[in-house]
Amino acid sequence: MASSTVLTLSQFTVATPTAGVNSQALTYKSALNSFVSFRTDKMMKMRVTASQTFTYTAAQTSDDVTVTVSAPVAVVSNVYNAPNYGLSAIGWWTGSSGTPKLVQATNVSGSAITFAVDDTTSTSATLLVYYLIGAGNFSWVVNIPLATGTAQATLHTGSLEDVNDMDQISADGALYFPQRLILPENYSLNLYVLAPVAVTMAQNSATTTPNTLATLSIPTEQGTMSELLAKMPNVKQNMNALLLGLKG
User: Fold this and answer.
1) Largest CB tally within 10 Å, which of 61, 84, 178, 185?
2) With contact defined as beta carbons under 8 Å apart, do 127 and 92 qualify?
């Protein structure tokens, strides 16, 4: 029997897109004898990030450090429309101790981010910055296996800034998967991104400098192909007709 579950970022294969080129960032392929049905009636979450490293060869004169990243930063606002800089960017400061420490973003203005590094003694340091991209577009694309090869259909194209600056926790800032979709076995769902910088979606959770901003969770129903075909014998033909129709 199909079960309700959530498809998370850890279940996607992460690619390395190219800056300024519409390229694949994430892919999820439905396993053999399995299907995934994406729901549009429950909130999802998605935050698309980039990263940049800054190097310092002298001690800082202030506890705050301001850096300018290579793309505008999307500023998340809460339900009261106040900026939440902690959800817009994070930093990992590695000073003379050699141990990275998480530092908070205290201000964002355009592509400038201020971090409270609280270190005026280290004469050699690095700051690894993860931030939400505030420019460019994304697309959800389905790969359709056919007897003659693979076809692609674009489900939805949207603005990275519009998605990244949403709070994604309230009714006023809710995000939903754009279209009801059944992904039968061997079909894949892909996230493509066109942005001025290369997207960084790897969470690196096993490292000392994880990317805790990168997020993707989509409510789904999942089950076996045998039970799906028992209810919908022509599901592949129907999905192909729907998806190939989107190609226009």
Assistant:
1) 185
2) yes
Longest dimension (CA), the chain: 69
State whether the Cα torsion 55-59-64-66 is positive or negative: negative
CA torsion angle 176 180 185 188 (round to 10): -50
| Structure tokens that stand for 122 in this block | 């280290």
Provide CB contacts within 8 A for 15, sequence distance 6+. Answer: 23, 24, 25, 26, 27
Residues 6+ apart with CB under 8 A from 206: none
The Cα–Cα gap between 218 and 208 comes to 27
| Rounded Cα–Cα distance for residues 34 and 108 (Å) | 44
